[in-house]
Structure formats: C-alpha cells, structure tokens
Amino acid sequence: MSKIRFQALIEASSRKPVEVIEDIKRSVLFGENVFNENTMRQYLTKDAFKGVMSAMEHGTKIDRKIADQVSSSMKEWAMSKGVTHYTHWFQPLTGGTAEKHDAFFETIGNGMAIEKFGGDQLVQQEPDASSFPNGGIRNTFEARGYTAWDPTSPAFIYGTALCIPTIFVAYTGEALDFKTPLLRALTAVDDAATAVCKYFDKNVKKVTASLGWEQEYFLIDKAMANSRPDIILTGRTLLGHSPAKGQQLDDHYFGSIPSRALNYMRDLETECMLLGIPVKTRHNEVAPNQFELAPIYEECNLAVDHNSLLMDVMGKVASRHQLKVLLHEKPFAGVNGSGKHNNWSLSTDTGINLLAPGKTPMSNLQFLTFFINTIKAVYDNEELIRAAVASANNDHRLGANEAPPAIISVFIGEQLTKVLEELEGVTNGKLSPEEKTDLKLNVVGKIPDVLLDNTDRNRTSPFAFTGNKFEFRAVGSFANCANPMTVLNTVVAKQLKDFKVEVDALIESQDLKKDEAIFNVLREYIKATKNVLFEGNGYGDAWEIEAKRRGLSNNKTTPEALKARISKKSIALFEEMNVMSKVETEARYEIEVEEYTKRIQIESRVLGDIAGNHVVPTAVKYQNLLIKNVKGLKEIFGKDFEKYAGEQIKLIKGISEHIEIIHLKVDEMIDARKKANVITDLEEMAAEYCTKVKPFFDEIRYHCDKLELMVDDELWPLTKYREMLFTR
Ligand code: ADP
Ligand code: MG
Q1: In a 10 Å sphere around its CB, with 0-12 CB exposed, 13-18 middle and 19+ buried, how is residue 702 labelled?
Q2: Which of 90, 476, 563, 695 could be joined to 394 by an S-S link, Cβ 3.0–4.6 Å?
Q3: Most distant pair of Cα atoms in the chain: their distance
Q4: What is residue 236's three-state secondary structure?
C-alpha cells in the first residue's frame, strides 16, 4: 500500500472527536458579528442610522458625511471585538469570494500611529484585481476596476477582519462580479411586481424576492481526501471502483447523523449564528457521507451573500475537524451528486407572500397572477434558465437519474392543474355576473383549501411549486446562487412588465373591468404555456421523447447550454430590464465557456497523470509479483505448472491488456487535447474539449477501475471509495 494511503487510513481511523462548545440558546449568538440594525442603533448617530436604513430600504445614496460617521462607528464596533483589519468582500466571476485585508493601522509621522477607517475606505476601493476573470471587458476598455459598498448587505466580522460586502465593477461601469447584475435584477423585479400588485392593493410600495437555499455536501476525512490527487486538484474522484455497498440500501438518508459529522455541523452552525446566517435544518442526504444544510429564507441578495460566505466557512470549520468538505456536484461516480435547491418567492412590503394563496378571492387572484406569470416566464425562457445552471461539474448530475434532467419543466401538482384547467374555460371578453360569482366562489376562492392537502411532491422536477414558493432544483451545489437568481428574477420581471401592458390594453380598448382583463390575459397564458407543465417522472426516457415533441430544449452539455446566454433574445432581455448590457452578457458567456474548457483540461491532465504515474506502475509491480510466482511454480512443477498457475497467468495477461489500452487511450487523449489547444475560437475549443477530450475519461477510468479490482489491495496507491465513503 502506498505510504500516503496507509497513513490516511491510520489517521482517519484514529481521530479523536473535536470538542464542540455550543450555546443551546442560539438566538443569543445570532448576528453577534454582524453590523446589523440593532448594532447600528447602538453605534450610529441618528442621522447616520437614518441614512443607512434609507439606503437599505429605498436604495438612496449615502453622502460623504454620513459615510464618515458610519465607517468610524464600524471601526469602533469591530475593534471592540478584537478586529485589526478591514476588507471589501466581493464575489468575482471565479465563483468564490474575494478579500484583501488592510489594517486599520496608519502612521501619522513622528513615529506615531493611529487606527483609522474613513468613509472613503468604506465606500470605495480599488483592489488590484487584474487577475480576476473579466471576459475581455477590461482589455478593451479600461484596465482598472473598483469595489463599492453595498449597504443592503450588512458588514460582518470574519476571523479578525471587518468585511464590507461590495460590488465589483470596471471603471467604465461594467459589472465584473455576481452581485451587480443580481442587484439590478432585483430592482427590475421589484418595479415590475410592484406595478402589478397595484391592481390588487394600492398600498404596496415594494416587492422583495426571497431565497432559501438548501446546500448539499460531502464530508470526507481530510487525510483521505489529501491522499487523492484528483480530489485535491479537481474536487472530485476521476477514478475509483464502486464499493460493494453504496447507497442501494437507502440506509443513510435521514438516518441518525454520525457523531463526527454532527460535531462538525454543530461547530459550523455556531459560526453561522455569529455571522447571522440563519441555518435551521440539517440532515443526512442520500449518499453515504453526504449531508444537507438549509437556512430560514432571506431577502435574495442577502441570501446569496450568506450562501457564498457559508461555502467558505464550511471549508474552514471542516479543516478544524480534520475533515474536507466536497462541494463538487459529483465527487463520486455511482453515488448521488450534490445540488443546491433554490427556493424562491416574492413578497410585498405589506407582508404578503405573492406565491401563497390568501384569504379572499381577490388575494387568490393575485396569487394566480404571480403563479401563472412565473410559469410563463419559465416557459418563454427555458433555455436561458437551463444555461444559468450549466457548468462542467453540473453536467455530471443533470439528467443522470439522480437530479432533474437538462430539460426545464414546471411541476405544479394535481390540484393547481385542475384550477388552471377551469380558468382556461373563462369566457373571452366580458364575463357574466354569474360566471364571475362562480369563479370567485368555486375556483379562485377554493385555492387555499386545495393547497392545504397538496401533498404530492415530485422530486424529479427541475422547477416545482411547493405550496408557497417555487423550488429551482437544478442549481449545482458548488454554484454561486447569484447567477440563477439573476436570470430567474429578470425573466419574471420582464414577464410581469409585459403582463401589465396587456392587461392595461384590455381595460382600455375593450372596456373590461380590471379583474375581467386579468382573467382574460391569464387564460391566454394558460393556453400558451401548457407545454412546460409536466407532472410525470422527469428521470424517465419517455420524458425526453415527450419533451422533444413539445419543443422543449434538452441541452445536455455546458457548451451547448451556454449558447442560450448570448442569443439575440437574451441579450435584448437583459438590456431591456437594465440587468446587463450586451458587453456584460457577452463577457460572462466568454468567461463561462473558458471556465468549462479549463476544468475539462485540468481533469484530463490529472487523469493522465494518475493513470500513467500511479495506476500503471502499481499494476506492473503486481504483475511482476505474479510473474515471479509463475516462474517459481514452473521451477517446482516443471511442465505441469500451468495446472497450478492458470489463474495467475490469466491475471498477468489481463493486466497487460488493461495497461495497453490505458496507454493507448491516454496518448489519444493527449493528442485530442493538443488539437483542441490550438483552436483560437473559445466556443469551438470548448466544444472540442466536450466532444473529443472528455469522452476518454470514462474509457480510461473503466480500465483503471478494472485494475483496482485485480491488483493486490495492499499495493493499491489510491484511497478507495469504500474507505472515503464509509469511514466515520
Ligand atoms: P424541503 O424542500 O427540503 O422539503 P421546505 O419546503 O420546508 O424543505 O423548505 C426548504 C427551504 O425553503 C428552506 O430553506 C426555507 O427557508 C425555504 N422557504 C420557505 N418559504 C420560502 C419563501 N417564501 N421564499 C423562499 N424560500 C422559502
Ligand atoms: Mg427542497
């Protein structure tokens, strides 16, 4: 056995539990390290407090004087908690988070120094961020970029640094991060939804999108993870034979949480509490050593920040527990991968969830309006929504009979399907008083009762209505939620905007009452969007055929899927809704395409290395032992030896055959890579990697995994699946 595998096994099996100190009253810890409303009240002057609150709630600008007051109070608060540095905290297009710490400390001459944090430093910074992906934006325009304070997401203390959530934009104004377009999309959906709400309640002034993510992940012993070059470099295993026992007994899901994992979770949750991330739910997931963590939902921008922060915290806490968190969408072949369901809804400043039915027929008509408009938005933009969850990692998961397919459809449940069917029969134009009464009493009025016993749950749908929210299930576990949330909120904003125009036109031109006009437009939407509604098994082959017939897209790979991002329609949509300019949309496309290529390229190199430098030499070593054995048998038994060495000879031959194919395929893969690498067009290069390089992965893996079964376990260099998945 390789030294590193041997050590990993010993280390993993001799771990002592890490002591976890947990406060049973989590509410006491909650937000302790956040410069939240409560803390601001304590530390800020009245003017400064008002200024920040108004910026948070109405997006007003914060003037210089107030910024100075806020920064100095933030510093005072942070220093009282042992903080020495501050940083602008942002989400560049790498998908992770970025920080660059600066000390409060400043010299003032005469060998003296003070602690300083002024309004200037709070509001704007110019990080040397030239190495972040920019999709050509900063080459063609201006090299510099800056970060600017986002007061809607409160500052927090992480480690010994005060973190200020910021946007990151080029000097010419183009977004270079995930947050900027998200904020613009949230404004767009607020404007459009508020306008529609006014049909029902004139008092509504603001609509907020909410997000509740559910984060899935694997926990593996750190020494074991570190013993695998593929996990270290790619986040997943590129080879490894499935263990005799996998998830077939379903004995892990919702089972009792192993104590090492539980200790980790408790520690992680305490950190989350301090950071104001309202985590609430934890449980085992389907695969061995796979778990899930979910918070109470929050305003979308804050929830996205919290998820990004969480992914970082998860890694840090795991390290303390000698564990490694795998956030990759598919770390292990043959066992379920990880996703991140995005639960999404819209609510008003009057306290109404627009995707929950209400108490009166009118509030239910409002619910139906938002419900049906969301379905229409998804239908009209299904390809773009698919593109929003596309990544090299997620390709392993979507459509692999464990996660929703690459086809975007909407599940609404049997009862709501019936409601839509009834609404479809509404008379064209003016409604008779009898029809109105009937609709109000028997259709719209009955929705809350209908939903109460809406128990059907379809886990195979990528976009499902779950009683008071939609659950977007195709998002990958490693993804930054900002991208899917930007797309979803933008398409819904556009749809609501169009809806308003249509309803207003009917009211004017046909002299219809408001509710008549709404019924009329909704009826047409129901007719037009039937193809996107699907209640059956999303994992089945039959659905692929049916979806094709319905004209739904089924873009299985990232290079194919991403194209929808830069279609004429998408570019126009993002421009119209003021979410992204053409330049920004195209830049993002370029970055994503390039990231895809790079990931496949890295995986290909790592696989070639492991196959050539770990697997083959080990197989040769074992083969030599067998040869020696056969020679010895020949010495003893003479020409009869084959009677005794038959199996060994078969093994020797088999090993040679596998080695030969591995060599051949690795060489061919390298050739394919060389060909791909000289392609100058990024899109073509990604397609080449997808169709010409990637197919070698499974072939090479197959033969390596066969060798794993043949070679003496003691010699095998790579920590095995059963060891990683079942060691607790
Ligand atoms: P599950 O989908 O696992 O059965 P639940 O349906 O109870 O679990 O909730 C899942 C997630 O949905 C939680 O993170 C919760 O905060 C979130 N959620 C609940 N209501 C809303 C809402 N109105 N908007 C957004 N997210 C919500
Ligand atoms: Mg869920």
Answers
A1: middle
A2: 476
A3: 105
A4: coil
Angle (nearest 5°) at CA 658 between 657 and 659: 90
494-543 confidence digits (pLDDT tens): 999 999 999 999 999 988 999 999 999 999 999 999 999 999 989 888 99
Of the listed ligands, the closest to the CA of 343 is 1
Task: Give 343 Cα–ligand 2 centroid separation in angstroms.
Answer: 7
CA distance 228 to 246: 20
**Most informative mutation of 277, 300, 307, 343 for ligand 1 (most atoms within 8 A of CB):** 343
> Could you tell me the pTM of the whole model?
0.95
707 C-alpha to ligand 2 centroid (Å): 39
> What's the pLDDT tens digit per position in 231-252?
999 999 999 998 877 776 666 6
Residue 132 alpha carbon to ligand 1 centre in Å: 34
* CATH code at 31-177: 3.10.20.70
Fold of 186-580: Creatine Kinase; Chain A, domain 2 (3.30.590)
Which of the ligands is closest to the CA of residue 339?
2
Find the ligand nearest to 283 CA.
Answer: 1
What gap in Å lies between CA 411 and CA 535, rounded to an integer?
5
Name the residue of 207, 211, 297 to mutate for ligand 1: max ligand atoms within 8 A of Cβ: 297
Who wins on pLDDT, 370 or 11? 370
Report the nearest-CA residue for atom 14 of ligand 1. Answer: 212
CATH of 595-726, one of 3.40.1010.20, 1.20.1250.20, 3.40.50.300, 1.20.120.1560: 1.20.120.1560
What is the number of the ligand closest to the CA of 208? 1
Helix axes 482-509, 361-380, angle to 10 degrees: 120
**Higher pLDDT pick, 539 / 700:** 700
Cα 342 to ligand 2 centre (Å): 8
**Cβ < 5 A residues, ion ligand 2:** 214, 341
pLDDT above 80 (res 277): yes
Query: What pLDDT is stored for residue 453 in this prediction?
Result: 54
Segments making up each domain of the chain, as ranges: 31-177, 186-580, 595-726
Ligand 1 centroid–CA 259 distance in Å is 26
* Alpha carbon separation from 35 to 32, 84, 140, 150, 158 (Å, rounded): 8, 16, 38, 13, 12
Which of 94-103, 374-383, 542-551, 675-684 comes out lowest in average pLDDT? Answer: 94-103
Kindly report, residue by residue over 437-491, the tens digit of the pLDDT: 888 888 888 887 767 655 557 788 999 999 999 999 999 999 999 999 999 999 9
Kind of pairing, strands 85-89 and 161-170? parallel
The binding-site residues of ligand 1, defined as CB within 6 angstroms of any ligand atom, are 210-212, 214, 294-297, 343-345, 353, 466, 468-469, 471
